[in-house]
Design goal:
The complex is a heterodimer of chains A (355) and B (249). Helix content of chain A is 41%, strand content 19%. Chain A has 355 residues and is α/β, with parallel strands linked by helices. Chain A folds into two domains: 4-237, Rossmann fold, CATH 3.40.50.970; 242-351, Rossmann fold. In chain B, 57% of the residues are buried. The chains are: A alpha/beta (355), B alpha/beta (249). Bound molecules: thiamine diphosphate, iron/sulfur cluster and magnesium ion.
Chain lengths: 355, 249
């Protein structure tokens, strides 16, 4: 099989199946409906399980049961559905159940609209559910990268015993691009056996229990510290980003996902106009890549963060830059796409005529 | 000396935390004995609720998962779809099953999910100190119905067994009580049938057990048992509501 032309939503579903995912639980919502439809058709072909749940609340708890029972399991949804899943996600993180959760974001708040947007950055990277926990959040910007990252996500989830979120948006879900499933880019990992899974005791001496209740505060504290050791390991090993033309850049664009593609074009146009512009594209939104900012903060004059929201990732950019250089922001909410011409104008203004 | 009685292998040695006179303990024992007798302990996976039985995972000697409040049927669905040949059960209170988890139980039943549900109806929220449950009787005083439950304000208590038994996917539903020996024996038979339904792959099975909460009802254990008989049973009639088992033993 050479490259195939596929919609983002279908490519991510196929990537999951090729990663060994055999259990999918979901509830229809635009703009991710192609994932549920694809899974409904494909899962029976590979001997897997597709189940349409009665709500996202149920879907995420089915994920908990299946993941806790040792399966490679996935769910997908869009923004309002992810809100409903937050309780379950907190339990998944608390009980250390591996799974992959896909959020194909749309405009909000509330029912919002069904255009692609990036308003769920805070929700995905800063919790969303209750309690002290972290999710590993990966944001592809092409459909090939979506396929690559979905496969990697299952491995990361299993290695860390933690939910991994794929954060895309409606545009990425709906657009078509060629995908090569034979040359998936992913790291080699030591994935431990799931000796903790509730598979029925069988001949096992001990019982396996999937649980996040530790009623004794010192015991819970210790458990939280253990979780954070795991998160610290992820912060060390799971940072991903792309950096283009940053060595000599005066102005560095910062963008993730779909809008990073627009930002890349704008960077090229600005370069042709003579402006020294670079691009930092975070791929892991948590752990957030601080490294590219540490590398550039002494040489760059300023950063311009572009998002399909009123500004969420920009706060992490500011934390990474630590007020050593100005961080500007341009974004549009509601599923509207930030204009390349406005980005260019801002670059010219920030560069202040310095070419 | 010959051993005439032994604690079931279905329970661990962890002492129950239940209040004196609470019948959660009896129900645990019945479930554990049934699993031992059916020889399914090594392939059973249970789901504990949020409620007084939240520590059920410490008591049953099989693999267990602890679910969020009300979500046990969805969690059990996930487990059963991964391990269709294992025995999966939930143990849930009336707040868990009939309030916050109504959607999950109705749809698990409607799908004919091949699981066994033990539903402990004690007409209140035991764990949080005795608030109104969907099953609280009209006139019953609780923390949140200090003047007694009023139909005009709170509506009427839900009869879950009756409601769920209308669903096509349901294989077995029985309501039982555990206020005396005779009823305990009947409850055990019902629980066994509910596991047999799963073994025979018949579909969804549930046993509703009328259970005491002397602590929050403000009664002695004996008064509480009598209250079940005199007040709960008339509103929640005991009996088999659905049975598609091949051979009821
Ligand atoms: C989402 C959520 N809401 C509320 C609670 C608090 N809570 C814990 S147990 C419980 C009620 C349990 O009552 P029931 O299911 O009848 O079980 P019982 O204790 O009576 O056996 C409530 C409301 C919770 N843990 N989670
Ligand atoms: S509060 Fe009620 S239900 Fe809970 S353990 Fe005590 S008596 Fe039993
Ligand atoms: Mg109760």
């Amino acid at each position: 099989m050479a490259k195939v032309l596929m919609k983002g939503n279908e490519a991510l579903a196929e990537a999951a199946i090729q990663a060994g995912c055999r259990h999918y639980f979901g509830y229809p919502i635009t703009p991710q409906n192609e994932v549920t439809a694809y899974m409904a058709k494909r899962m029976p072909e590979v001997g897997g399980v597709f189940l349409q749940a009665e709500s996202e609340v149920s879907a995420i708890n089915m994920v908990y049961g299946a993941g806790g029972a040792g399966a490679r399991v996935m769910t997908s949804t869009s923004s309002p559905g992810l809100s409903l899943m937050q309780e379950g996600i907190s339990y998944l993180a608390g009980a250390q159940v591996p799974c992959v959760i896909v959020n194909i974001m749309r405009g909000g708040p509330g029912l919002g609209d069904i255009q692609g947007a990036q308003g769920d950055y805070f929700q995905s990277t800063k919790g969303g559910g209750h309690g002290d926990y972290r999710l590993i959040v990966l944001a592809p910007s092409t459909i090939q990268e979506m396929a690559d990252l979905v496969q990697e996500a299952f491995d990361i989830a299993d290695e860390y015993r933690n939910p991994v979120v794929i954060l895309g948006d409606g545009m990425l879900g709906q657009m078509m691009e060629p995908v090569d499933f034979e040359n998936i880019q992913k790291r080699k990992r030591d994935i431990p056996e799931k000796t903790w899974a509730t598979t029925g005791r069988g001949n096992r001496e001990h019982r396996n229990i999937i649980n996040s209740l530790y009623i004794d505060p010192p015991v819970l504290e210790k458990y939280n510290y253990q979780l954070f050791e795991k998160y610290a390991k992820a912060e060390k090993n799971e940072v991903r980003y792309e950096m283009i033309n940053c060595e000599d850049a005066d102005v560095i664009l910062v963008a993730y996902g779909t809008i990073a593609r627009v930002a890349k074009n704008v960077m090229n146009i600005a370069r042709r106009e003579g402006y020294k512009v670079g691009l930092i594209r975070p791929i892991s939104l948590w752990p957030f890549p601080k490294e590219p900012f540490e590398k550039t903060v002494n040489t760059a004059k300023a950063y311009l963060t572009v998002e399909m929201s009123m500004g969420q990732m920009v706060e992490d950019v500011k934390l990474a830059v630590q007020f050593k250089k100005p961080v500007y922001f341009y974004g549009r909410p509601g599923g509207m796409i930030p204009e390349p011409s406005v980005m260019l104008e801002q670059i010219r203004k920030i560069a202040g005529g310095v070419k | 000396m010959a051993v005439v009685f032994q604690k079931t292998k279905g329970l661990t040695d962890t002492p129950f935390h239940y209040c004196p006179g609470c019948t959660h303990g009896i129900i645990h024992r019945l479930v554990a004995e049934v699993m031992e007798e059916l020889d399914v302990l090594d392939k059973a996976i249970g789901v504990a609720p949020v409620g007084c039985a939240v520590f059920a995972y410490d008591y049953f000697s099989c693999d267990m998962q602890e679910a969020a409040h009300g979500r046990a049927p969805a969690v059990a669905t996930g487990i059963k779809r991964v391990h269709p040949d294992k025995i999966v059960f939930t143990y849930q209170g009336d707040g868990d099953l009939a309030a916050i988890g109504t959607a999950e139980i109705v749809h698990a039943a409607a799908r004919g999910e091949n699981i066994t549900v033990i539903f402990v109806n004690n007409a209140n929220y035991g764990m949080t100190g005795g608030q109104m449950a969907p099953t609280t009787l009209i006139g019953q005083e609780t923390l949140t119905t200090p003047y007694g439950r009023k139909a005009e304000v709170n509506g009427y208590p839900i009869r879950m067994s009756e409601m769920l038994s209308t669903l096509e996917g349901v294989a077995y539903i029985e309501r039982v009580a555990v206020y005396d020996v005779k009823h305990v024996m009947q409850a055990k038979k019902a629980i066994k049938n509910a596991f047999l339904a799963q073994i025979q792959k018949k579909g969804f099975a549930m046993v509703e057990v009328l259970s005491s909460c002397p602590t929050n009802w403000g009664m002695t254990p004996v008064e509480a048992l009598n209250w079940i008989k005199d007040h709960m049973e008339p509103y929640y009639p005991l009996g088999v509501y659905k049975n598609t088992l091949e051979e009821v033993k």
